[in-house]
């Protein structure tokens, strides 16, 4: 980002530094006191992960990696949705080139978030199905506000979560719980998610969730940052390497799968159901 733009943004924000607002699909705000960056997704109505939001997420993660922030908190500007997961419109009757770019970008964004060298936490201030849950489970810590749901519901849509979605889920849940939940396409309420360990804490508001994420990141204050990040990377290296090695095959598998007539039909019916529900409200 241009230095002049950064400076004008710095002047605008009182105690927090707004580091990027380019497209406004994501913003990064660094708290001057804590040195922790809050990355906010802002794609109404549901933070559907389309190509552009994924691109912005990746560049915001890169920005936080580069600006010496002490940690990254991922959250949403919506009062009821963390992220509705992948934008189904990217996968339904897709454009040939765009869907390739979309999946490739999803891979890159996941590699950057799951492999981030800074401590990461998700302040889950709304529903978090599928790709939303992928983002949350790619972070090291999760704090969630009550009365929402989280989970990998892919089988409910007639689609299959790829191995690296499973890897993030498995970094949080025991294999038995993860396998059952994925097979069922189960969405957990906040209370259920806490009980099973899918989230670490609950909070009564987004602000409180962020405070709890800050406290989690604060637990590393006296830990050598290089030792901490190398340790984290060793834990995650096998999952990251597996996708790195199989990126092209993963893309081709996705394209083959998503273009199956039965999958397209299922996505169409699911989208229709979402739209009917929205009209009724
Ligand atoms: C062995 C072989 C292995 C092969 C493996 C390889 C590849 C695998 C292939 C595919 C894997 C792909 C992985 C996909 C993961 C995903 O993320 S899929 C997306 C899943 N998401 C969902 O199911 C969420 C659906 N949405 C909801 O449940 C609700 O919308 C909500 C999030 C709970 C919010 O509810 P609310 O009442 O507030 O809002 P509305 O429902 O009224 O929605 C408003 C508006 O937004 C539209 N919308 C909602 N979600 C999406 C979405 N995900 N994509 C696109 N659009 C969405 C909804 O239709 C409404 O639109 P409007 O009517 O035009 O206003």
Which sequence of SSEs, written as H and E, runs from N to C?
HEEEHEHEEHEEHHEHEHHH
Tally of structural domains: 1
Gyration radius (Cα, Å) is 18 Å
Q: Look at the structure and give the CATH class.
A: Alpha Beta
Give the CA-CA distance, first to last residue. Answer: 41 Å
Mean pLDDT comes to 92
Using the alpha-carbon principal axes, give the shape.
Answer: globular
Protein name: Enoyl-CoA delta isomerase 1, mitochondrial
Pfam families: ECH_1
GO molecular function, one term: delta(3)-delta(2)-enoyl-CoA isomerase activity
InterPro entries: ClpP/crotonase-like_dom_sf, Enoyl-CoA_hydra/iso
Which descriptors apply to this entry?
alpha/beta, binds ligand LCXROUX7, three-stranded mixed sheet, 2-enoyl-CoA Hydratase, Chain A, domain 1, 281 residues
Please summarize what this structure is.
By secondary structure, the chain is α/β, with parallel strands linked by helices. Helices cover 52% and strands 15% of the residues.
């Amino acid at each position: 980002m241009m230095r002049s733009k950064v400076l004008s943004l710095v002047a605008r924000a009182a105690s927090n530094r707004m580091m990027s607002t380019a497209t406004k699909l994501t913003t990064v705000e660094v708290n001057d006191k804590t040195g922790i960056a809050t990355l906010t997704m802002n794609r109404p109505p549901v933070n559907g992960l389309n190509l552009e939001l994924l691109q912005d997420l990746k560049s915001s993660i890169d920005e936080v990696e580069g600006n010496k922030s002490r940690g990254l908190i991922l959250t949403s500007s919506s009062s009821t949705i963390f992220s509705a997961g992948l934008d189904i419109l990217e996968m339904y009757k897709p454009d040939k080139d765009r869907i390739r770019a979309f999946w490739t970008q999803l891979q890159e964004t996941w590699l950057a978030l799951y492999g981030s060298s800074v401590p990461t936490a998700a302040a889950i201030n709304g529903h978090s199905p599928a790709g939303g849950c992928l983002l949350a489970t790619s972070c090291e810590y999760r704090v969630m506000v009550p009365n929402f749901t989280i989970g990998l519901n892919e089988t409910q849509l007639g689609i299959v979560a790829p191995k690296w979605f499973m890897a993030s889920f498995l970094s949080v849940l025991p294999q038995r719980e993860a396998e059952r939940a994925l097979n069922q396409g189960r969405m957990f309420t906040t209370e259920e998610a806490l009980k099973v360990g899918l989230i670490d804490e609950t909070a009564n508001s987004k602000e409180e969730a962020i405070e709890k994420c800050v406290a989690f990141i604060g637990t590393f204050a006296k830990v050598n940052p290089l030792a901490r990040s190398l340790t984290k990377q060793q834990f995650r290296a096998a999952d990251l390497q597996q996708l790195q090695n199989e990126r092209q095959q993963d893309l081709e598998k996705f394209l083959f799968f998503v273009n199956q007539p039965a999958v397209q039909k299922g996505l169409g019916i699911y989208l229709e159901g979402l739209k009917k529900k929205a009209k009724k409200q």
